[in-house]
């Protein structure tokens, strides 16, 4: 149960190796104007910036500006940022990222949230400085149990769970697994889908029908990553581990084009330097092979969506989550999938208001 201090210190030899690999990038062919995935132009631009402009040491310093630790839980190394509020009685929050993100998703949110809460920001098992995962079984439920153990180990008897992307799946499970200690769950997506019962579609609003159309488009046109991760993650892992340009091409299919390059490359570099690009995507394989809970969650739950992101549909969400107490779309200009980074004030204000309302 020991907890050890941790600092990010990537050896210079690893940075030199990366530079050599980027310099030897072989860019693929494409048909101009064909919408067949991430463009050569985008990958070429990011590779160029990774070589000649991106400052990893500056990003490393941003990470090391916050206290970091590691501990072993259920046989797995767990890395986490831990920022304590000056008030020892402040509520604690555990913030969980997803793929292709990392703990870097929440760096901008640390300062505003830590004025109100103790913060625990772990790297998901298999990802980044928690990885790679060396055994099977790290699905959302097992991760949630590890998070409950982590918060208990840190001495928090009351806490909230916050999540984005995969973290929006894990955080409700934390509330399910640890109901005596979790006061509420705040997420940016509620991933609830039609069950196949035709009655679920009766009387859907035009807005929800439009949302379903977007989901249908996304699955048909951009869902290949999910299928591949769920079926053969090891097959893809060989390429992701060997080619930084290939890693970029795979990751940026789900990084909005208007995200700043430093954010994109910080996430990519964390995967690259820790050798966890392949380990991380196994989580999809694990979740596809575990029986999902049949009963709805009961923790007070808040959803704060953004325009241009996954469209949650309340009818389906209420089937899976029985205590949704806040449902909103963040005000403009909040947009896209990574609002903790791109719309920090809007998201953190909603998080603060939600949890302060639960005290």
UniProtKB/TrEMBL annotation:
Q: Does the keyword Zinc apply?
A: no
Q: Say yes or no: keyword Hydrolase present.
A: yes
- Check the record and name the Gene3D superfamilies matching this protein: alpha/beta hydrolase
Q: For this UniProt record, give its keywords in alphabetical order, as a comma-separated list.
A: Aromatic hydrocarbons catabolism, Hydrolase
Specify the superkingdom: Bacteria
Cite the InterPro entries for this sequence: AB_hydrolase_fold (IPR029058), Epoxide_hydro_N (IPR010497), Epoxide_hydrolase (IPR016292)
Query: Any idea where the Epoxide hydrolase N-terminal domain is?
Result: 4-106
User: In which family does this protein belong, per the annotation?
Assistant: Belongs to the peptidase S33 family.
> What is the protein named?
Pimeloyl-ACP methyl ester carboxylesterase
């Amino acid at each position: 149960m020991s907890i050890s201090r941790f600092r990010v210190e990537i050896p210079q030899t690893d940075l030199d190796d990366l530079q050599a690999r980027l310099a030897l990038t072989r860019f693929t062919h494409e048909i101009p104007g064909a919408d067949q995935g991430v463009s050569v132009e985008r990958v070429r631009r990011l590779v160029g910036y990774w070589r000649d402009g991106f400052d990893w040491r500056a990003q490393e310093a941003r990470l090391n500006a916050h206290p970091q630790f590691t501990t072993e839980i259920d046989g797995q190394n767990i890395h986490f940022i831990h920022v304590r509020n000056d008030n020892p009685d402040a509520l604690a929050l555990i913030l969980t990222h997803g793929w292709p993100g990392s703990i870097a998703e929440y760096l901008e949110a640390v300062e505003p949230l830590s004025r109100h809460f103790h913060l625990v920001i772990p790297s998901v098992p298999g990802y980044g400085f928690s990885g790679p995962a060396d055994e099977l079984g790290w699905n959302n439920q097992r991760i949630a149990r590890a998070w409950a153990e982590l918060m208990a180990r840190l001495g928090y008897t009351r806490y909230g769970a916050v999540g984005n992307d995969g973290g929006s799946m894990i955080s409700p499970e934390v509330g399910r697994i640890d109901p005596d200690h979790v006061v509420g769950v705040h997420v940016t997506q509620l991933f609830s889908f039609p069950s196949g019962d035709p009655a679920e579609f009766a009387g859907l609003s035009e807005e929800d029908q439009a949302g379903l159309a977007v989901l249908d488009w996304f699955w048909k046109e951009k869902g290949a990553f999910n299928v591949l991760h769920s079926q053969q993650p090891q097959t893809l892992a060989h390429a992701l581990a060997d080619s930084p340009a290939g890693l970029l091409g795979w990751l940026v299919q789900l990084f909005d084009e208007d995200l700043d390059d430093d954010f994109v490359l910080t996430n990519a570099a964390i995967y690259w330097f820790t050798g966890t690009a392949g380990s991380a995507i196994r989580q999809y394989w694990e979740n596809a092979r575990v029986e999902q809970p049949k009963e709805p969650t009961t923790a007070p739950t808040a959803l704060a969506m953004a325009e241009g992101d996954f469209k949650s549909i309340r009818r389906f969400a209420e089937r899976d989550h029985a205590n949704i107490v806040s449902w909103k779309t963040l005000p403009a200009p909040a947009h896209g999938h990574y609002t903790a980074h791109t719309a920090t004030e809007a998201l953190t204000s909603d998080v603060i208001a939600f949890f302060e309302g639960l005290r």
